[in-house]
Structure formats: structure tokens, C-alpha cells
Amino acid sequence: MNWNSWAAFWDMGGAAFYVWGSYGVTFIAIVAELLLVFRRRRDTLTRLLRLRRAQGGRPAAASPDSSD
Amino acid sequence: MTMQSSRGFHLFHFAAPNTFYPLAGRLAPWFAGLAALLAALGLWLAFFVAPTDATQGEVYRVIFIHVPAAWMSMFVYLVMAFWSGMGIIFNTRLSALMARALAPTGAMFCFVALWTGALWGRPTWGAYWVWDARLTSQLLLLFLYFGYIALTEAIEDPRRGDRAGAILALVGAVNVPIIYFSVKWWNTLHQGASVSLTKAPSMAATMLWGMLIMALAAWAYTIAVALWRVRSLILERERHTDWVSAELDRQGARP
Amino acid sequence: MKSRHKRLTLIVAGLALLGGAVALILSAFQENLVFFHTPTEVAEGKAPTGRAFRIGGLVEGGSIQRAADGITVNFIVTDTAKRIPVSYKGPLPDLFKEGKGAVVQGKLGPDGTFLASEVLAKHDENYMPPEAQHALDQAHKAEKTLKQ
Prior knowledge:
heterotrimer, B: mainly alpha, C: CATH 2.40.50.140, elongated
């Protein structure tokens, strides 16, 4: 075990700012990306559903590049 | 569905958006779970098993995210270039969407590599940033990601956006070997690679395992997030088809 | 039609901004392909004259001396072939040690002393626990004694 106490763990041998600054920002970046991905999914569904309802619930005419 | 399988080209079966969409939805949670497990194991090794470094003390523990993030940022760009090339050669609809789905995650890892590098450089080298060949080419990679995202988002015609993005991805891929070999080709402040195919790793075993498992976690995370993202892109792009209408009806019927 | 025009302007402006940033990065890249010169290169006159540049090498063992004023540090940077005396006023990075790598930025004085404005420590890609480092040092010492 590297640490004698939790205080020693959080202190990181005096490098707390650099070590936790790295891990903390990485964690924030990952959480932010996940939130953005799920929000995008929700927004896409909401928008396409509204579009479909506006067209009376029928499938729109197939566009030429997506007919296969 | 019958139309797809009667074509006979089995490999391309899953390249059809309507078969890939549900597959991606089934696979993504598994990769996300795997990423969480690997990250937990990797962090445990990083902080509780790997010993203090003789020269740097505890601050070296930044390596467990810095190196996996830097590897991932380079690898993701190469994969984007691969899908871009596939899209141009085979004109498959899914390829460009895969490249688009990967770009934000690659940019995120590129930013993390630069950020953690700065926080590691200050206490060891004595500077947050220097303009040496390694750091400069990695910063260029971040701008290539920004350029790719801006270009593909800005061009209204999706097919044209795909094409423009593909060209940028393929041309920009030249930067990746430049980043990787910069510490060999030129003299830099950044140290050489601790792990490479040509020599034995210059790290203690538990340090190395921690780093490799964190790298695997980054892989699993990237796959999960890209699969989730590509599902939105597929719905958007294929919104005129019957199968998306059916999928929308299913989603709309849910409470 | 108007919104399309606006969009196009935005794209062009965005790309111009990105292009400018990339151009600046590329020029920094080209300027710093040679991040530092070795003492041998300086001795051969390959280093730039009249402007600041960087020298890199090992801090010679036993060469670090603090001047009487308490701020100035003098040491020697060597690539084992040539040596350059360096004078520096300011904070030193933690990893700056005798026998370890360093990169110093500054100008060559008329007496051949390098007047440094910035000192950076360059470490290698080896990571090991203190016990392993100790064992390695002992082995090096033993090897040296055997050779003598």
C-alpha cells in the first residue's frame, strides 16, 4: 500500500494540484461528453417525431440517395 | 431485410444503416460497462498498486491518463481517416457517419492529453508549455479535430459535408506519425516513448499494467460513445426512410 | 437565400480563423524543430548568434554552485564531449539535478558563459520504484569499480 492515511493520499506527495487537476478535468470532460451524447439523442428523436407528426404520420417520400 | 441478405455480400450486411442501428444500440451498453470496469481496475492499480517513481515522486501518476488519452487521440484520427477512405472508395452510407461520430471523442481525448501534459510538465520540466515538436504537433491535432467538426457541421448538404470532412481527415492523418515519431526525429523536451513495439518497456511492471488497462478502458469508452452518437446520426440522415418512420413510431408510442 | 448567405459568411470566417491558428502553429513547429543545440554544436559554431537559443545536455556532476548573492546559480552543461558554463538567476525545476538532463534558454556571453533566462529539466522515459533505482545505481557503481 502506498499511503499511510487518506490525508497522504489526497496530498499526493505535495503534487495534489497537478495530479487531481489532471484526473478531475478528465472526469469532467467524460461526464460532459456523455451528457451531450444523450441530449443529442433526445433532441434528434424529439425533432424527428415532431416532423413526422407534422406530415400526418405517413412516411415521407423516399429521397433518391436513401432508396436502397 | 430480405433485400439486404439476398445481395449476398455478407461483410456489408451490417454496413446497412437499418441493420447497424439496432446492433449499435445493443452493443453500446456492453462497451460502456466494460469501460467502467476497466477504468475501476486501472485506477486501483494506478493509485494503490503502482509504486512511487524514483525520480518524479507521486506526480508521475498523471501518466495513467496522459498516455492512454494521447494514444487514443492519435488512434481515433487514424480510424476516422480509415472510414473516410472507405466512404470515398465504396460509397457506403455508414462510413462517413462513423467518422463523424468519432470526431468529438477524439477531440476530447486530444484536449485531455494536452491538459494533463501541461499539469505534468510544470512540476517536472518547469513549464506548462513549450513549443517543441511533440507538443506543437499534438496541438495541431486538436485543431484538425476542430476543423473536421466545424467543416462537417457547417456544410448543409450532408454528402458534400462528408466529402469535405473525408479529405481533411485523410490529409490530416499525415500529422499522426509526425506526432508519434517527433521525439525520435527531432530533439524535443518531451521524453521518448516508454512503451513501443521495438524495445522492452522502460517501466516497472505494475506501472505498465495500470497504463495498459487504462488504455483499454479508453478504447471501450470510445467504442460505446461512438456507437451511441452514430445512432443519432443515422436517424437524422435516414429520416426519409420507412424503417426510421417505424422506429420513430415505436419511440413516440413509449410513455 | 439570405440565411444561406449568412451561413456561408460564417463558414468562411470560421475556416479563416482555424486556418490562421494552424498557420501560426505550423510556423512555431518549423521554428522549433531544433528545440535545443548540444554543447558540441555550439562549439562548432552551429548555434544562432545574436539571438536567444537553447542548449541541452547533462548537468555536470559537482558543477552546481550558488553564488554569494544567493540567487545566481552557476553550473556546467555537457554532452560529455564539450562543456558550457551557465549562469542563471531564478527558480529551478524540482527535477533539475547534477547528472540529469536540462535545457536552458538564453544568450552566449562574450566570455563564453551562457546567460540563461529559463532553465527546464529534461527527464527520460524510465519509470521505476526507488528500490529499483537504488539497485541500478549500486550496479553502476560496482561496474565502475571493477573497471578501475
